Structure formats: C-alpha cells, structure tokens
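Here is one chain, start to finish.
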Amino acid sequence: MSVALLLTVGGLTATGMYLVTSRSLSRIILGFSLLGHAAVVALVTAGGPAGEAPIAGRDGALTNPVPQALALTAIVISFGLTLFLLALAGRQQQLSGDDLVEDDLEDQRIARVRPDDDPAEVET
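Its structure:
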C-alpha cells in the first residue's frame, strides 16, 4: 500500500469517526459513509499491485478481480443505504424541526445509579 493511499484511508477514517461522534443525524450518516469509503479504498489497495486485465488473456501478472468486485458491490450497497438513511433523517427533521439526537433519559438515570444503590430508590 502506498503512503498516499495509506494517508487517504487514515484521513477518511479519522474524519468519519469525528462525524459519527457528533449529535447531528446527517453528520452521523455521512460519517458512516466516509468509513465505508475508507474500507473500500483499503480493500482495493490491499488487492495487490496493478497488472494486466484478467479478461485480456495475456501472459504476465494479472490483477485479481475479486477485491475490485467486492469494492464495487460495497459502493453500491453503501450508496443505497446512505440514501435510505438520509431520507429517514430528513423525515425526522420535518417532524421534529431539527436533526439532533436527543438525550436518552433512561441512560441518564442509569448513569446516576451507583453500584451500591438500590435501583428502586433512584428518582426518575
């Protein structure tokens, strides 16, 4: 894997993780999309060095078509899933007026409970 592609995968992964940790649904979805693209770039570069097309029938080093086929399939699935999730986030924004992920009150209540507390005595 070349250094440029390694830096590209690292940059896509870092940016994707940053977006996933935000509170906006659209940023979370785009973050997962960037993580998927980082995986595709890593898969294609790990597939081996460039060579002749396997369909050409020439002798010499041939390129393995399986990583390229997997990458193409991953791109198509990622595109469809991203559009579906963006449609859901858009509908949620229409209904609530924003696309921020709300705090879960049950998680906050559980975080206040100490291990030695009786769960029935914790206020809600």
